[in-house]
User: Fold these one by one.
Assistant:
Number 1:
Amino acid sequence: MTLALAFAIEWWLSHRQLAYVRTHRDAVPDAFKDTISLEAHRKAADYTIDKARLANVDRIVGLVILLLFTLGGGIDVVNRFWAGFELSPLVTGIAVILSTMLLINLFELPISLYQTFVIEERYGFNRNTPKQFITDLLLQTGLSLAIGGPLLALILWIMQSVGNYWWLLAWSIVMGFSILMSWAFPTFIAPLFNKFTPLEDETLKKRIETLLDRCGFQSKGIFVMDGSRRSGHGNAYFTGIGDSKRIVFFDTLINSLNHDELEAVLAHELGHFRRKHVLKMLVASALITLTGFALLGWLSGQDWFYSGLGVSSQSNALALLLFMLIAPVFATFLQPIIAYFQRRHEFEADDFAAYYTRPIYLINALVKLYRDNASTLTPDPLYSAFHYSHPPASIRIANLSAKSS
């Protein structure tokens, strides 16, 4: 029932988005008539529509996969296969979870290929090659096994050995691991996929360092990432915690924006840091994760949890696997709440940027980003309230324009 409701909500919202974007395809919103051409507006609408259609296909594929592996008996088949090797319960559990997740990713691979080499290619964004795509896929899989495998083994061992409140210890370990990865990602993991070079433009670098001093922000450096290696989309972000914090500009963004606009974009990103948005989202994530582990701790001891999802036997590994598969279904109902707070954070970061730089600079940067990334200016209000982590373009620009008056 919950699965059907979640699917119906997502399908209905997608239908609204498609209809709304299509209806407004041939008219640039008044606020953007002087900065966005009708051709660019239509391109963004068509790009949004094509992505939404593919998302619907992905939604159907995901539903079919979930049903096949649960009610269809897929997990039972995988479990019996590994049980035949008569390994220890811990090793068998690890093998069942990892092989099931690998199979699911393989089934979903065609969607990713179509997104990259058909849709992104059609709109001029794809810079990826089949060789690079395969290399990335193998590297991601290898890292998932090398990093996720031991973590999975530790959680299963805790479930098996610690008693009724195992979930509390497991949660603390997962949160500690998340913080560790936030520290390690910019220094050790991200460079495996992209090249990061120190910012060479001395004039821009000096302006950024001045801004950092004014905002009270310290980082390990300002870097340019070769995002154009895979995509024509542009972005900027800061990453890491503690001594590993660094500021990253995509090379595509450096080539698209002038110095004033880049400084404004960076001020926005710094606003997230100064307003403690990262910390707030980490706390929210910790609470949601804790609730999830507590729920898993209870469900793992309920017979109906297994039989109701088409699994004939019971084990810690099967309980964890089933929970991993069905949790996204229930997360659907949290999306509008999470998106609401994310949009609030974006407004606060925009206000921060408007205080430390001129609002018009961020407005100009955002308009260029909407245009260059083919982001629709006319999303369905209800769809955006449910899914968008950033405020719609017209609302965001209006908020910034009010700051400059």
Number 2:
Amino acid sequence: MSANTQKPVLIIGGSGLVGSQAAKALRRLHPTLPITIGGRDVGKAGAVAKEVGGADAVRVDLERADLGQPDARAYSAVVTFLKDDTLNSMKYAQAKGVPYVSISTGLFEIGPEVGRYVHSPASAPILMASSWLVGATTLPTLLFAREFESLETLQLAAVLDEQDIGGPAAYADLERLTKAAPNNLVLVDGRWRWIGGEEAKRTFTNVDGAQVAAQAYSMHDLMSLSAATDARSIRFDLAVGESSARRRGEPFSTEMVIELTGRKKDGTTGHTRHEIVHPGGQAPVTALGVALHVERLLGLAGGPPVAPGLYLTHMLVDPAYYVRKLEESGARIRRA
């Protein structure tokens, strides 16, 4: 462990549903890594820190440039689990020269983060991790794509059970991301288009064979997969409703369907469909994605610490490593 990673990882919103699970996932990966749970309620944060072990708690004030932290306080990374409209958490990480991870910024609202990075590009690694569940569709897609010579169409779909949205911060994110922008971005035959109304609707076959009504949803997956695959058409659709597990009378699950069409390495046209189901819902999947990316940023796996720069989820974590860890966490992946 490098000298920098002896300092704790600051998890802002770490006492929330997903943030607390991310802290525990990071602890399982690295039992001795110091972790600080940051939040408005120090008592609640302290209770999570005790559960995590080897962690402490601090009050974080996002209205302040120093986040309310004493000058002597130092961190190895800053991860925020809520929408920081002030960007003070990002500014703080840049000022300290440590990695910054955000997971709540919609594709249509990345301008302020990108502008802040461009202003100071050599200050810190900035990971815009607002892909679906922090890589849960992008990274498996890139692994599945390895059997293709070139890709023509990527169709991704996810089911978020209405009972699995998460805590207040997650609910606020979903409300903002689905209502603030009237249209959603898709790539159609090599051209980027904003679509709405009937054009934004799609019905897909879910993992249990049910026909599910979904809506185009602008996630960072589109940026990652376009850059990494050069596919001609890419679309991500989200259905918020009843998961297949709950239809069977079981607790909710989170579900993803990944369909690829392109030219195989033998020259033929091929189509693949993979289904991913996690019986624990979206929270453990999101938590795992954050933990694996923090691990990589700090150089605890996969190479040395990441240099300053602007990153998306597909640029840091190896897809095969991610999929292995996802399955170890309880996810079931099936080629249909």
Number 3:
Amino acid sequence: MKTLKKSFKILLKTLLGFIAFLLIYAILIFFTSIISVNENNENTDKNIPIYILSNGVHTDIVLPLKNEIKDWSTAILYTNTKAKDSTLQNLAFGWGDKGFYLDTPTWADLKASTAAKAVTGLSSSAMHVTFYGNLKENESCKKFFISESQYQKMITYIENSFSLDKANKIQRIGTHSYGKHDIFYEAKGSYNLFYTCNTWANQALKAGNQKAALWTVLDKGIFYHYD
């Protein structure tokens, strides 16, 4: 009986500790998401169009496929997509957990092992790249302009997120895709409770000296600053 009571107390303490952690985590997310950084961005020489794009959970950073500063098309080939459409001139970058990306096309396919590896940072990551044509602005797609120097900093951040091979080239992950216009590449880092796909996107905005949350793991934490 004593052993049973002791086990129950341990289980209760563990449960209460987990609930307390979730509460603190939620409070931390809320307050750090609404704190703005780079709010006083006064640079007026802004001529490069950028988009932030959300599917309701995950945020992509959308850049021009090529301009005088960066030509992504030399490394990320439209011929590697199923559509092989050369007319699409925008490129969306989304960093995330490799297991989620490749093994979980829908929430119904989510495995407990995939989720556990993701939240604990035990899995590897991938970069999801999607070709787009003209994007329509709405609540989940925001357009803004940045300067050439800001753009250079942003692309440096994104470039440094790819995992390179021995020849210093980005590494395509098989022929995986969600549709006709996307490709997956190996990426650096690990997804976890404190660094998600949206944290990565938020950091990309920070790198380019754009409006961003102090810290966020949610897409809403990014889009809050662009309403």
